[in-house]
Amino acid sequence: MEQYAAQFIESPLMNTFDKTPERKISTLSEPVSLIHSPSSSYGSSSFKTNKGDSESEMGQKKKLGRKSSSFAYRICDHVKLGGPKLSQTVKGKLSLGARVIQQGGRENMLRQIFGMSEGEEMLKASQCYLSTTAGPIAGLLFISTEKIGFCSERSITFPSPTGHLIRTPYKVLIPVKKIQRANQSENVNKPSQKYIEIITEDHFEFWFMGFIRYEKAFLNLQKAVSMANQM
Predict the structure, then answer these.
(1) Whole-number Å distance between alpha carbons of 68 and 158
(2) Three-state SS across 184-222?
(3) Where is this region: Disordered (predicted)?
(4) Fewer beta carbons below 10 Å: N end or C end of the chain?
């Protein structure tokens, strides 16, 4: 456990543990390692297969229509999750885009925030939200062949051990080899609202939501876990 805990980015939220704690609800003042599960129904880790060449042209058109509608919904849902103040949400997205350009792309951003080892490959970087009981936190989810990293798009205020308030990005780092399983989930009341649940060997739970390209993010997560299991 101590070796695993040392893999986390040290921040006011990412304290290391001497032993595996009981699963509990997390708040912004607690370690982010324990994330409260949103209302959801667990889905299968496998993807649905396509119907094949016998599918009618009408069926194909309906399928494309649903896909387009789903994509449009995810964009709206992604923006809505940022909170009631649309101007602040848009400002955060523009700021994140500027940071990506300033740091030379998303792979360079991953390298600067979390570091990358020799031979490590970035598979996907997705805008999404980390689900917490204090509310969703917007940021970038990085998926590489060795790690899953999340960094908030804006700095968040935390109380320091000395009692002073400090502002720092909200970061999570999960070694891929420590992932026990990754699940697809959906909101029971809104099936179009999808989640990715990551459970580690030490029974920490992480919930990510508000993906614009949900399937691609989960596919690359599965790929990273599969590659780690083959090593």
Answers:
(1) 40
(2) EEECCCCCCCEEEEEEECCCCEEEEECCCCHHHHHHHHH
(3) 28-65
(4) C
What are the tokens at 4?
């695993």
- Three-class SS state of 231: coil
Answer yes or no: is 33 within a domain.
no
Residue pLDDT, tens place only, 164-196: 898 888 899 999 999 999 999 988 888 778 899
**Phi-psi label, residue 166: left if phi above 0, alpha if psi -120 to 50, beta otherwise:** beta
Interatomic CA distance for residues 210 and 82, integer angstroms: 9
Residues 5-18 pLDDT 10s = 334 343 434 432 33
Kindly state whether residue 58 falls inside one of the protein's structural domains.
no
**179 belongs to a structural domain:** yes
The pTM assigned to this predicted structure is 0.62
Could you tell me which residues come within 8 angstroms of residue 100 by beta carbon, excluding any fewer than 6 positions away?
106, 109
